[in-house]
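Lab notebook, bench 4. Still working through the backlog of constructs that have no structural model yet. Next entry is a single chain of 237 residues. Request: give me the structure tokens for it.
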Amino acid sequence: MSPLKTLKQIICMGGGGFSMEPKNLLLDAYVLRQSRKKRPKVCFVGTASGDSLSYIQRFYNGFKKMPCEPSHLSLFKPPLGSLEKYVLEKDVVYVGGGNTRNLLALWRLWGLDLILRKALDKGIILCGVSAGSICWFEEGVTDSWPGRLNSLECLGFLKGSNCPHYDGEKNRRPSYHQLLARKKIKDGYAADDGVAIHYIDGKIARFVSSRPQARAYKVGLHKGKVVEEPITPDYLG
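Model written out:
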């Protein structure tokens, strides 16, 4: 039997999951299934929230209900020994929400951005919600600056831009449109809360949702006007 091909998977959630819907873990369970492991090792990275203890506890509360081995990585209290070895032993890296600008600064200081690139190439699933979604793209719509939404250059593992919480925060859609119209951000994809965009080898493989009415959107500038194409994801319920 030939060995399974190594897939480079990134799963980007607009919102939802254990942190927003502790009684609706459909997206989280979907992520675990993509690992091809009976009990995948899943590591939560809460850098964007400053390693909020309550956020970390919500992760454990949710993932202990599912067939996996949960752990977390803190850059404020890092593991002993090699950070790279610690990360590359996992099957899934799950990045939480918060301040994307701070997340990127700390990751680059610690070299975690380079380690995560190695993890992706090795076949470790990268995923996350909100800041943990936009960080993988070339650019994202973020509230990392007080009182305003703006574009931010991110890791560039995925092409284009990303906007989470498209239906959950009233200023997300108009801000994304304004940034596109002013050519301050590249064309990309937006996701409602409860929607995940699943990339394999840098291309979209599937849109899934934990909420039946939630949608994704392909959004871009065409002949000077912002065009929005709704996409109906596969409901996981």
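Notes after review: The chain has a mean pLDDT of 96. Helices lie at 26-33, 53-63, 83-88, 100-110, 112-122, 131-134, 172-181. Flag for follow-up if needed.
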